[in-house]
UniProtKB/TrEMBL annotation:
This is ABC transporter substrate-binding protein. Belongs to the UPF0065 (bug) family. SUPFAM superfamilies: Periplasmic binding protein-like II. It holds the Pfam family TctC. The lineage of its organism: Bacteria, Pseudomonadati, Pseudomonadota, Betaproteobacteria, Burkholderiales.
Length: 202
């Protein structure tokens, strides 16, 4: 998202604007230092050959208010339904999701694949339910079964999708869960290394 006042209504036009203003690096808000969103901003700058000045906030709500108030030029934040209301009020512009696919309620939002400059700049943040190391396997199995059943309910899925979450297929075993997490950890490690940070093993 970008602040109102920047003459751009697409990500590519915003990138052009940033390149034309190289002498004064643009500022961007995230939820905090070394968050995934911070790393995305640094990775985007590196990809474009631009320097962006990171402005960390203590959470998404303050960062969003900072953007709407014109304190920063753009922001990279997890989706909230309030984004679109604020855009309608003329307080910010929502330019793109870093996803190539979105759940049905968000199909109207621009995708990164629509960019002609960085169509492959795809980053998604995965989430899940975690328990303490050493939790008995039978308890984990009960919890996994309950969560899986809840996620099959249309009203639960609809609420999650309206918040911008894509619900994955039901995970039946610890092996599946481990594989999914390892794949995500690999993507995050690649992102960390792409901006010159060190990725420590979990």
């Amino acid at each position: 998202m970008i602040r109102n006042g920047i003459p751009a209504d697409t990500l590519d036009k915003f990138i052009d604007y940033a390149k034309q203003n190289k002498a004064k690096p643009l500022t961007y808000a995230t939820v905090g230092i070394d968050s995934i969103y911070h790393l995305m901003g640094d990775a985007l700058g590196a990809r474009l050959g631009l320097t962006f000045l990171h402005v960390p906030y203590k959470g998404a709500a303050p960062a969003l208010q900072g953007l709407a108030g014109g304190e920063v030029d753009f922001a990279i934040l997890p989706y909230q339904s309030s984004f679109e209301a604020m855009q309608q009020q003329g307080r910010l512009k929502l330019l793109s999701s870093f996803s190539k696919a979105l759940p049905a309620p968000l199909k109207h939002l621009p995708l990164i694949s629509q960019s002609h400059v960085v169509p492959d700049f795809e980053y998604m943040i995965s989430g899940g339910y975690f328990v303490r190391q050493g939790t008995p396997a039978e308890r984990v199995a009960v919890l996994r079964k309950a969560i899986g059943e809840a996620l099959t309910k249309p009203e639960v899925r609809a609420k999650l999708e309206a918040e911008g979450r894509t619900v994955v297929q039901r995970i039946e075993s610890q092996q599946q869960a481990n594989k999914y997490f390892d794949q995500y950890q690999g993507r995050v490690t690649q992102l960390i290394r792409s901006v010159g940070r060190k990725a420590n093993a979990a």
